Amino acid sequence: MDLAVAILLLLLNLASWCTCSDSRLLVKMTLVPNASKIGGFCLDGSLPAYHLHRGFGAGARNWLLQFEGGGWCNDIQSCLERAQTRRGSTLYMNKLEDFNGILSNNASLNPDFYNWNRVKLRYCDGGSFSGDAKFDNGTSVLYFRGKKIWEAIILDLLPKGLMHARKALLSGCSAGGLSSFLHCENFARILPRNTSVKCLSDAGFFMDERDVTLNHTMRNFFENLVSLQGIEENLNKNCTSFLNNPKLCMFPQYFLKYITTPFFILNTAYDVYQFHHALVPPSADTRGDWNRCKLNIASCNTRQLDILQDFRQDMLVALLSSRIYSRRGGMFINSCFAHCQSESQDTWFARDSPQIHSKTIAEAVGDWYFSRITSKLIDCAYPCGTFCHNIVA
Ligand SMILES: *[C@@H]1O[C@H](CO)[C@@H](O)[C@H](O)[C@H]1NC(C)=O
Ligand SMILES: *[C@@H]1O[C@H](CO)[C@@H](O)[C@H](O)[C@H]1NC(C)=O
Ligand SMILES: *[C@@H]1O[C@H](CO)[C@@H](O)[C@H](O)[C@H]1NC(C)=O
Ligand SMILES: *[C@@H]1O[C@H](CO)[C@@H](O)[C@H](O)[C@H]1NC(C)=O
Ligand SMILES: *[C@@H]1O[C@H](CO)[C@@H](O)[C@H](O)[C@H]1NC(C)=O
Ligand SMILES: *[C@@H]1O[C@H](CO)[C@@H](O)[C@H](O)[C@H]1NC(C)=O
To answer: Is the CB–ligand 5 distance for residue 258 below 6 Å?
Structure first.
């Protein structure tokens, strides 16, 4: 091969490599040094961070804030371990984040929010951005300061344009979806009265459901989390003053009725996280009877399917309780075995992304946000479910 041809091939290769990397939007991390003034630290004491990609054109004054998710830590041991990972310290995080799905800047991939200011709030407190406590026994220190992290990031964003927002949407998935519910009211209060504020929770509707041995696995988990991280003070006051056990106000089904800001609930009726960790946690299936069913829904026996259908039924009862099912709310409850559907392109908006009545998730959320039509979509029970991207993790 002569040199010219070799160089030409090399250039062609580089060109295709560039096209490929161009279609990804990598956004750099911004640390928040001023967080230290109000004690807003990650579990390990590192500074919190976010990633901001500026809006443009008609979206230049609109803001989408997305809480990163990633489970919780609810005892000292698991929090100490988390503090040494990307879930508990900005030191170990990717400094570049790939913005796609609802964070994409491409109109054909994200038709309603592509030109907004889009912010990903990094999750490093292990308590859904809601704790306010500290553990220090002389040899080990842990910061449970999620609420301060939230406040510090907002303080940093306000002068960057958030204070002049016309429209705002608070979103997040999983533990971040719970954060979106938990902070919805105070987000609306921080912004000017004439800003249109709404909230979206993706896979954040964690249910106070007993596991298959009738143990309160999820309730115990949340109670320990609330106690350890000092979350109770920051829960919805109307809810905590109404319930005998105020810690239960960590569950959306108990506090959403007191939220007046419009919110959208995006969830699968067979949320895989809840299926695997709350309904059938390993502690409730020591003999492994559910192993095959967990990996492949087609392998579930009749009794197991009945249990999954009962779970869906309980979720619908909680969702449809009149005060949650408000006029200004929206929902998309599909019958897939998934968890988080707004953050990746293949579930948010693609030719084969999940649909209910031919609506994709991006279209349903956009219809609701912009009040184009009422957007309350609930699919029929499994085996219904169109274009599911099932996961088994
Ligand atoms: C936007 O996405 C479409 C569909 O994937 C793609 O064809 C187009 O090249 C993308 N535009 C940009 C600017 O990346
Ligand atoms: C502090 O807590 C850690 C984790 O529980 C433990 O390993 C350590 O021994 C404790 N230190 C003291 C002084 O109690
Ligand atoms: C941090 O706080 C100082 C003093 O309060 C202020 O002057 C500065 O602008 C703040 N920095 C950021 C990035 O907000
Ligand atoms: C809200 O009102 C203020 C003061 O009247 C005005 O400057 C601002 O542009 C308004 N914002 C929106 C989103 O209308
Ligand atoms: C919450 O409680 C306050 C004070 O008790 C009350 O004024 C308010 O109407 C309640 N909000 C809702 C949505 O129930
Ligand atoms: C129920 O949970 C408790 C505490 O989490 C545990 O000790 C017990 O073994 C569980 N019981 C069953 C039947 O799983």
So the answer is: yes
Q: Which domain holds residue 124?
A: 3-378
Helix (H) or strand (E) holding 351: none
CATH code: domain of residue 63: 3.40.50.1820
Report pLDDT digits (tens) over 43-88: 999 999 999 999 999 999 999 999 999 999 999 999 999 999 999 9
Domain count within the chain: 1
0.85 exceeded by pTM: yes
Predicted local confidence at residue 23, as pLDDT: 75
Active-site residue, selected from the candidate residues 271, 285, 367, 379: 271
Residue with tokens 């040199």: 3
The answer to whether residue 383 sits within a structural domain is no
Please report which ligand is nearest the Cα atom of 75. Answer: 2
* Å from CA of 297 to ligand 2 middle: 43
Q: How many angstroms is it from 133 CA to the middle of ligand 2?
A: 17
**Would residue 391 count as lying in a domain?**
no
Q: Is residue 93 assigned to a domain?
A: yes
CA distances from 246 to 32, 214, 219, 344 (A): 32, 22, 12, 35
Q: Is residue 355 part of a domain?
A: yes
Given 202, 339, 342, 375, the catalytic residue = 339
What count of other Cβ atoms lies within 10 Å of the Cβ of residue 379?
21
CB 333 within 8 A of CB 315: yes
How many angstroms separate the alpha carbon of residue 195 from the centre of ligand 4? 8
Q: Which regions in the chain score pLDDT beneath 50?
A: 1-21
